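Record 1 of the preview.
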Amino acid sequence: MADRDPDIIEGARLGEDRSEGISWAELMDLDSVPPPQFLREESYSYRGSEPIPAERYTSEEFAALERERMWPYVWQFAAREEELPEAGDYVVYENAGRSFILSRQDDGSIRAFHNVCLHRGRKLRTEDGNADTFTCPFHAFSWNKDASFNKMPCAWDFPHLKPGSMDLPQAEVGRWAGYVFIREESGGPSLEEYLAPLPEHFKRWRHEECATVMHVAKEVPANWKVTMEAFMEAWHTIVTHPQLLPFTGDSNAAYWTFGDNVNVNLVPFGVMSPHIVASGGGQGEQWIVDEFIKYNGRSSDNYDPGADPMAIEVPEGQKAREALGNRMREVYTQQTGYDHSDATDAEVLDALVYNVFPNFGPWGGFMPNIVYSWFPGSTPDTCVMDVRILARVKKGEPIPRAAPRKFLRLDQKWTEAPELGGLGDVFEQDMDNLPYVQQGLHVSKTGDVNLGNYQEIRIRQFQDTMMKYINGELGGSAGK
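->
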């Protein structure tokens, strides 16, 4: 901190600097449809400038602390409702060394219980399916779909096992907007409290009316936090995704945090990057639109292979962003049957990328939308990145069963899931960095990771909250 201006009172002005170019707030004032208030109100607080220890990403000892002190006490996004729509449908959810079964009950509720036979410890299920009973393939101990004990063979040999003590241990279940969460250890904030203010923001976007139309996961040769944090800021676009710069306001995006658990990166599309503007580049408003249609993985035609590519001509005197917003409102109305006339440009165009601690990343705005999750691997040097695409179900039609998950191995590329369209190419550009980040963290001479005060505030908030669990301020040790 030796280079800091001595006249700056500690923390008073740090974090106040912003990129040149139009700000997010100024852009909201120009949008052709007035945005909701929550997209206007900045929520930023300076959180310090101290480095992050590299060992948090490389150490097995630290990973063990995450498994012991954090994962059991946080709400984890485990499934979507459309993955288990019928009574008896179940989903196997695994993370951080634990395995759970989420099972739909006859009354429509969902229970979650540990996926481990209480006889000799075999996993009861390894794949999703439908069952009223879960019978262990090893010795045929059996449980009902509500986790109660059913029966066992050779009961005469187990007089010491009382049926009432043989129910499978359960986890808490929370449900919001089509998402199903579990928490291994009971107690602490309710799901609604934990997610706040996310549910209030997402009311307009009605994810409960959506379905998983694509689902791809991939093993990645980097720590889950390294991988997740690569998707928590937009300014890496300048060198990692240069094809996006003509229509992406990368370094003038907004970064906001809410309490311990929620943050958002608001990245404007339909405007040129400040880096292009500063260099005097660019070829006009029509060029911005044309580049958006070519490279933006979220454009609506990308998720309908039978549709014609969007053909948008920017009228004289109109901005690219307004032309794109007008067309996207029309497209979404036609596709879904819902009126989108009150949707602002930001809600039909921009990357409104929320994160909920520790590893849930749903995009806001109107569909189609991305939902990210990241999971630790078998060592601190690997992880699994999970990507869903949600689309709004057409008005009046039933919600279809979720698309099955495609899993890509470490030696496969995101582009081997062609259903991702342009997103596969973008993800591969990110993957080009991540193994070398992980390797560099292992050999770093300083052992420090240094963060920007504003554009990387989401990473800072995540790290702060994680350390509250590790240090016992939150979780099982809190208040003891």
